[in-house]
Amino acid sequence: MGILVAILGFYFFFFVLDYLGGIVIAVGAYFIATGLRTPSHRQISGKVNQAIYSNILERGTERIKTGQLRTTQERFVEVLDKLQDILGSQSDMPELGYDAIFFHCRSESEATSRLNQIGDKGLNGSLIQNKNDWQIKIEF
What we know:
Layout: H1 2-15, H2 18-37, H3 41-66, H4 73-82, H5 84-87, E1 95-96, E2 100-105, H6 108-120, E3 125-129, E4 134-139
Antiparallel strand pairs: 1-2, 2-4, 3-4
Helix pairs in contact: 1-2, 3-4
């Protein structure tokens, strides 16, 4: 948008009025500058993934220490590392169970495609249907 406004400003500057062109060029430069400072979708989704990953890692470590999660710290981190890019694409926060992590999905098609993604990462998962949604259970 800023580039188009700046080009329009150059047109005004050279062919219409100098001062009007200068104003439009300044507005275009402002749009370009703010556009360059705005984080991209990839940067935002990376921060979201990292925040979710850190939160689940912290909660899981706590639960392992208290005995509420039956796995080793190494296995938990290994599974979580494989799932890191999937964590942010979830509509709901994954849940930690006694010996597994559960992903919630709104439809069967979403659940099967997510299960295929998880299988491609070398993890075993199973599909569970509840009253409200579909869940994918990934055991540690």
